[in-house]
Amino acid sequence: MTALYAILAILIFGLLVAIHEFGHFSAAKLCGVRVEEFAIGMGPALWKKQKGETLYSLRAVPFGGYCAMTGEDGESDDPRAFGNQKAWKRLLILVAGSFNNFLLGFLIVLILQMSSGYVPSPTITAFMDGCPYDSAEALQVGDRIERINGHRIVVQSDVNRWLTYEGEYDLELRRDGGTVKLENFRLEKSDFPQGRYFGFLFGSYEKAGFGQNLRAAWDTTKDYVSLVWESLRMLVHGQVGVNDLAGPVGIVDMMATTGAQQETTADALWMIFSFGAFIAVNLAVMNMLPIPALDGGRVFLLLVTAAVEAVTRKKINPKYEGYIHAAGMVLLLALMAYVLLHDIFRLVTG
Fold first, then answer.
1. What is the CATH number of the domain that holds 150?
2. Same domain, residue pair 184 and 258
3. Burial level of 311, CB count in 10 A (0-12/13-18/19+)?
4. Rounded mean pLDDT of 262-270?
5. What pairs with residue 185 in β-bridges?
6. Are residues 295 and 202 part of one domain?
7. Do 99 and 200 fall into the same domain?
8. Is residue 63 domain-resident?
9. In angstroms, rounded to a whole number, what is the distance separating the alpha carbons of residues 342 and 332?
């Protein structure tokens, strides 16, 4: 089954890349930019077809793809060239790829969430040993938190959003069919064997309508974004190194391994697609980093160029930006090659 899960993981990863490039492609077409080639995959072409002004191709290596536009990294006399478009059009085209990845990640999470039909409930199910709030006058097992400082609580993650500090809170609880209000209720974290927490636990689920499913899916997707930023922070601060990074080979291996570790096929598919949603969000965030050769780097230089041209009233030759992206691409490819070889080494050595 591991081989089948690996094939599924490859297809999902290929889909993520295709969706990303289709974002650039569709935005370019919408803005009237000439697209010379739209390719899914890299390397030798397995299939290609010229349709109108654009060559469509499917290439041998399923990791990658591109949307080649006229005048993308240099000057062109073609009025439909990318570099000759207004700044807002170029910006739209550049962010469309990451937008598609984020949207796809959210939709996958939403479909998985709706397939379960349940959301984590903001109902207290237990207290840690020694929790000072376990009393008739305070919080009780079975209390459903309805509002925190006036903010409506829909799903469990809303509690984490609004209980962010030690201090006084206005809590509204549903208890035994009635409403209990705790005004200026002081909450302080204590040291427990599990760590430093307020001390009350949630562990129940409740049937969800579409609105709750939508909210839970949105919260999960935002959590994915937070995880990506936390990983980047750890990388910058040296808490993780380059050897901890994973490229396409490593990601596919992790997805396949995760699927194989599940007890049922349904659980395996759920985990693989959940992993795929996280990777989609990861790609959306990473591609928008202000690094040359990435979409975020292009957006950053686009904004800088637009600001300079607005002040100087002189157009900057796009070849200079092309040089910067070319240098960034060389460094990026070198990093990708290193990560790829490291992934293969880990795969071979077990």
1. 2.30.42.10
2. no
3. exposed
4. 84
5. 169
6. no
7. no
8. no
9. 15
Residue 13 inside a domain? The answer is yes
Q: What is the 3-state secondary structure (H, E, C) of the chain?
A: CHHHHHHHHHHHHHHHHHHHHHHHHHHHHHCCCCEEEEEEEEEEEEEEEEECCEEEEEEEEEEEEEEEECCCCCCCCCCCCHHHCCHHHHHHHHHHHHHHHHHHHHHHHHHHHHHHCEEECCEEEEECCCCCCECCCCECCCCEEEEECCEECCCHHHHHHHCCCCEEEEEEEEECCEEEEEEEEEECCEEECCEEECCEEECCEEECCHHHHHHHHHHHHHHHHHHHHHHHHHHHCCCCCHHHCCCHHHHHHHHHHHHHCCCCHHHHHHHHHHHHHHHHHHHHHHHCCCCCCCHHHHHHHHHHHHHHHHHHCCCCCHHHHHHHHHHHHHHHHHHHHHHHHHHHHHHHHC
Instruction: Tell me how far apart the alpha carbons of residues 238 and 234 are, in angstroms, rounded to a whole number.
Output: 6
> Which residues does the annotation mark as catalytic?
21
Residue 130 and residue 136 in contact, taking contact as beta carbons nearer than 8 Å: no
Give the domain range for residue 195.
120-207
Edge-to-edge strand order for the sheet containing 167-175? 151-152, 144-148, 167-175, 178-187
Residues 173, 127, single domain; the answer is yes
pLDDT in tens, 221-241: 988 888 788 788 877 777 767
Quick one: 108 and 140 in the same domain?
no
In this structure, what are the phi and psi dihedrals at residue 198, rounded to the nearest 5 degrees? -70, -35
* Confidence category of residue 205, pLDDT binned at 50, 70, 90: confident
Q: How many residues does the chain have?
A: 350
Q: How many CA atoms lie within 13 A of 262 on its CB side?
A: 17
- The answer as to whether 60 is a domain residue is no
Q: Residues 329-343: pLDDT tens digits?
A: 777 767 667 666 766
Q: Is the pTM of this model over 0.85?
A: no
Q: How many domains does the chain have?
A: 2
Owner of token pair 């509204």: 172
Structure tokens at 302: 């686009």
Q: Compute the distance between CA of residue 299 and CA of residue 169 in angstroms, rounded to an integer.
A: 42
Measure the CA–CA gap between 243 and 346, rounded to whole angstroms: 10
